[in-house]
Amino acid sequence: MRSVLFRIEVVREGQEAVSAIWYEPDGYNGEDKLLVFVYIHGDAWISTDAVDVDTYIQDITDGTPCKVVEGTIDCETKQRSS
User: Fold this and answer.
1) 77: in domain
2) 78 in any annotated domain
3) Where in the sequence is the domain holding 61, given as residue range(s)?
4) Is residue 82 part of a domain?
5) Can you give the pTM of this predicted structure?
6) What is the pLDDT of residue 82?
7) How far is CA 14 from CA 17, 21, 29, 58, in A?
8) In this predicted structure, what is the pLDDT of residue 73?
């Protein structure tokens, strides 16, 4: 049994949308209450995609069981022009 994932966009008024991945245990019926585990990454992906930690997140989702929301915070620094 492996968890199911969905890519979602969180729309924020006046700001850019935030991409996230939503995981649910395989066979989840949508009615049972589950804990939600929030996994936030700091934007330093070795291979450029959040799905690269998919196995780790699926283990958390299926082993707990819980829902997991995985998101990335853009840590890019912008220099000021003088």
Assistant:
1) no
2) no
3) 4-72
4) no
5) 0.66
6) 39
7) 9, 22, 35, 33
8) 62
- DSSP assignment of the chain: ---EEEEEEE--TTS--EEEEEEE-TT--S-S--EEEEEEE-S--SSS-GGGGHHHHHHHHHHTTEEEEEEE------PPP-
């979602």: which residue's tokens?
8
- Does the residue 62 lie in any domain? yes
- CA 70, 73, 74, 76 dihedral sign is negative
Kindly give, in sequence order, each residue whose CB lies less than 8 Å from that of residue 35, ignoring residues fewer than 6 positions away.
Answer: 64, 66, 67
Determine how β-strand 35-41 pairs with β-strand 66-72. parallel
Residues of the chain with pLDDT > 70, as a percent, come to 72
